[in-house]
Amino acid sequence: MQAADAAPTASRGGRPSREAAAQLGERILDAAMELMLEQGYGATSIEAVAARAGVSKRTFYHRFADKAALVQAVVARVVERARPPLAPRPAQPGQAPEQQAEGVEALRQSLHEFGTHTLRAALSPQVLALYRLIVGESHRFPDLLRAVALSGGRAQAVRTLVETMRRHLPQLAPAQAEFASQQFLQMLVSLPQLRAMGIGDAMSESDCDQWVTQTVDLLLQGIG
Q1: Does the pTM of the predicted model rise above 0.90?
Q2: Which residues contact 63 (CB under 8 A, 6 or more apart)?
Q3: Which ranges of the chain does DSSP label H, i.e. alpha helix?
Q4: Please, which of 47, 53, 59, 92 could form a disulfide with 28 given CB 3.0 to 4.6 Å?
């Protein structure tokens, strides 16, 4: 197992190249994610992660200070991969009454794109598995909740939504835009995730599309 440490290409100084070091870090995170989902967070040891990744404990500790740092990196990677790669559409210039309808329609399209990607990510197997892990073990291991908080996934999504809403509808107060963004995320993801986890029937792809459309419509009606 330990021989795998030597696999990355070394640079002139004898250390792995930056690319090889990054690949080694990814291998450790892959192993940690696999073991946590197979055995649970509490039962996953650093020794087991190092063995699964094919590295020495020294190599592991060179990259992660402890198990808490490891789970933070695992959660951060899942959140980053699930993040909507969407930039807000440019707002219509000015907001005269006759232009407001255009702003709402542009906002509708942006929210629909954001909502579609976010819901698909929330229902992906890896995100659902991580969600089950957090729900099942966070009461015993606060590190899991701390890792979610530090990942900043929801906070970043709210910031993107607030920016999008206020670009298209500048008259919307910041506090109103933030409240609407929080509610939009809750409406969008909560019930579909529960159904995907077995509390009710899982949604089909067409169900999800309709869910996004109706959630966006409800939000826009709410903010007038």
Answers
A1: no
A2: 24, 25, 28
A3: 18-39, 46-53, 57-63, 67-82, 97-122, 125-137, 142-151, 153-168, 174-196, 205-223
A4: 53
User: What CATH number corresponds to the domain at position 14?
Assistant: 1.10.10.60
Are 133 and 37 in contact, with CB atoms under 8 Å apart? yes
Domain that holds residue 180: 93-223
Residue pair 40/129 in contact (Cβ under 8 Å)? The answer is: no
27, part of any domain: yes
CA angle 215, 221, 224 (to 5 degrees): 140
pLDDT tens sequence across 43-61:
999 999 999 999 999 999 9
Q: Could you tell me if residue 71 is inside a domain? A: no
Evaluate whether residue 78 is within a structural domain.
Answer: no
- The 10s digit of each residue's pLDDT in 180-209 is 999 999 999 999 999 999 898 999 999 999
Instruction: Answer whether 129's CB lies under 8 Å from 50's CB.
Output: no
11 backbone dihedrals φ, ψ, rounded to 5°: -85, 180
